[in-house]
Amino acid sequence: MDNIEIGLWVTGGLLVLVVLGMRVAFAAAFAGLFGLIWIFWARKGYDPSEFGWALEVAVKTAGQVPHGKVASQALSLIPTFILIGYLAYYAGLTRALFEAAKRWIAWVPGGLAVSTVFATAGFAAVSGASVATAAVFARIAIPEMLKVGYDKRFAAGVVAAAGTLASLIPPSAILVIYAIIVEQDVGKLLLAGFIPGLFSAFVYMMLIIGLALVLPNFGPPVRGFTWKERFVSLPPALPIVAVVVIIIFFVYNPFGGDAWGTPTEGGAIGAFIVFCMAVWRGMRFAELKDALIETAKLSIMIFSIIWGVLIYVRFLGFADLPSAFADWITSLHYSPMLILVCILLAYAVLGMFMDAIGMLLLTLPVVYPAVMALNGGAMVAAEDSAFGMSGPMCAIWFGILVVKMAEFCLITPPIGLNCFVVAGVRDDLSVQDVFRGVTPFFIADGVTIALLVAFPAIVLWLPSMA
Amino acid sequence: MAGGASVLSDDSLLSRLDLGLQHVERAMALVSGIGAFLLMCLAVVSVTGRNGFNEPLPGYVDWIETAMPLIAIFGIAYVQRLGGHIRMDIVVGALKGRPLWLAEFITTFAVLVLMVLLVWGSWAHFDRSFDMTRPMWSRDSTIDLGLPLWPAKLVVPVAFSVLCLRLVLQLWGYGRAFVLGLSEPVAVPLVMSAAELAAAEANQVKGHD
Amino acid sequence: TEWNVSVWGSRRAFTEHIHKLADLVAEKTGGEFTMNISYGGLSKNTENLDGISIGAFEMAQFCAGYHPDKNRAITVLELPFLGVNTLEEEVAVSHAVYDHPAVAEEMAQWNAKMLMTSPMPQYNLVGTGEPRDELAEFDGMRVRATGGLGEAFRAVGGVPTSVTSSEAYQAMESGVVDTVAFAQHAHLSFGTINTATWWTANLNPGTVNCPVVVNIDAYESLTDAEREALDSSIDEAIAFYLENYGELLKQWDTVLAEKNVQKVMIADEELARFQDIAGKPIHDEWITSMSAQGLPAQELYELVVGTLKTARASN
Ligand code: NA
Ligand code: NA
Q: Could you list the residue range(s) of the whole structural domain that residue B172 is in?
């Protein structure tokens, strides 16, 4: 059996383990270690006396990965981005944002729902994780919408869908993970997420306004705020703006000249500002401790998947599967765009059953080289490429597309974590209710993804300036 | 999602061991969290030094790389205790009683085998960087400051060893539940539907806004 | 026999001798002995020596400055201002040092045997912003420079901030570092030249030493014919490498013009001051600290100086 066949068998085995309910991080590591043993033993012709050697080499090879891959300055963004979200919550920024959004934009049809989308987009600018964002806004926004007569299912759906914005609008843990896996510039990817994130928010808004105009019993607009009330609502939400500006300047200086530092530093300075604000707002040590433990739990959960999957990826390297898959994809006689669309559809199906990070980590090592090869190679010039963009730009564009797909999967049944979380916060809502309420947003996300595919400039304009 | 799952307790030996180990695990998770906090402080110092005084922090990258294993791995057993590592529970979620405990026992056992092997592998990784006869016992160091790498590498087998202890307790818990046919065993994260798990997760942010 | 070879980055002048070696060996053994060269799939670049010691792959390339503690003896080749002027001289001194028993012994601890070097020209800086052409401007400069080069810049107030070569572009682009010291091929293949505005043409502070090693067990279990094919191909592989790198250097000025990168010449008195501060004192310090660790440091140092003299004389 050649290495590629071993690669396929082990990959199949990994999927079985995941379906059977083994934790994704451990299933990937298990499959990777098992595969390494297999491949080393195969090199010795399955000689029983060499099994011990194969086991030892495989174990030591896998044993390098957790420390080796985790000790990375680029990955240090992840805990920082998570910490900032928890601190923002304790600093009262979520409530402040929602109040400001309500007073300023709730007068449009479907007003409170639109406000929720924008407040969430604002919070997304300090939060790096979608699920945490959805959990926070379910507490704040849903009761307000229910008060003015929204359908509770729809109110829940708005929050679940809007929560996904947190992973496109920087900071975003999942964009960092993508950048690391494909070895692209983290800063440019974060920058690239900005406009598609706002664009998604805009499409959500159009959808809500459209529904409000068509449906008779939709939530009414909320009017009657004085200008004074509006302006008073702004100062408490201002730290968000400060944090957004800082993160942007640390990634890319819009006035020309050098960026102020690295995205890691930008995230950390942002977190520090929010931390100071939380302390000023009276955060106690016990609350800080909670925030730190929650940050640790979420970070460790994400990092476990990272090193677990990277053990599997190390095995793929020995099996040479990614390049074989890339060769296969490029040998197909279909148009590259058709193949790309098929890949995105495959993500939609896979995402029904998996969470976003695990899905990306498991698939990218194989799919990403294939997509790059499809475009004409990692270093191809725009004029020679299949998608009309250079290799590095294609990496960014595809990154935003798959992250948007992964976020879409957070609201699709049967496994849609954002919907679970929203249902979890509200005792009066079942998961089915939230899935019902979020359904209109499938259309919005479909439209967004189609437009991002058709007009790559939406994604690439900002990073190509940097 | 990392989430709270419910772990029941009573006054049995297993439950007391579970709670005892939990103290250690939670302390380790707090160390991870404090590490993330210090990372933030480090960046503030670095940026201030560089932009304010033209004095960049020497070895900024070295310190980050040394701290990351502590942040990303040290508290791993605590997450396992709470059932916080994500998984697909379409199949497991449909099981009840003995079949469920059997399924949990088997996958947990596989994880234990994996982690014992990884303790070996990560210890070997540490051991290659450690030499008592060298200055700072170091046979591998960071690029700029020459900080010894062995302490950061040692974090991994230590954290994984605690995880192995946790897995042994969970195996005991699942095994006991299987043999006695329990419906609500102690010392294991009780299988909740994904929705219930998310509810517990969401509960953590209740009452703070 | 099939060998796995672990290198990193993408195929470039720096790895051409390995591809040439693979071709030659396959040819000489009629396809019996092949090499499967993997760019980053088998190991992280700073862990290639670990992978060799484990036996995960049979051949690998690594750079001494990534982990001086793993390979103390050959760090003599990374001392700043050694005065190596050509790639041929670099090959001569490297291979002389590789043949020293202290090097062989230290490598044997990793189950590794030195095969050949990957000679590189002087590591000059590229940077963004205003050119730094005076020593005073190195104060507070965050420079990606490993090993002895890092020491040299530290001696004049620089702050070595080192990521591995694969991460150098990102570090420069995102502002982790102000300048990057690389050989020309690496400025090209890792893209640092694309984001730079200037390049120091004559700073010439030294270079980095990156050997290719093989796993001892794998080497010994080759058949006689295979081992003979491998050993006899090294000189030709190196010759091919030198020729190929020479072509690259010839085109370097064109590349600079194309990328609109300013060529910075540093005044002779500035260079002399840099050498005074970062040359001899760092050499002496290296000899003292390595001797204290029980290495024949003086001997290694003199081997470099002596070989360099002989190599010059023979031209
Ligand atoms: Na975000
Ligand atoms: Na889903």
A: 4-207
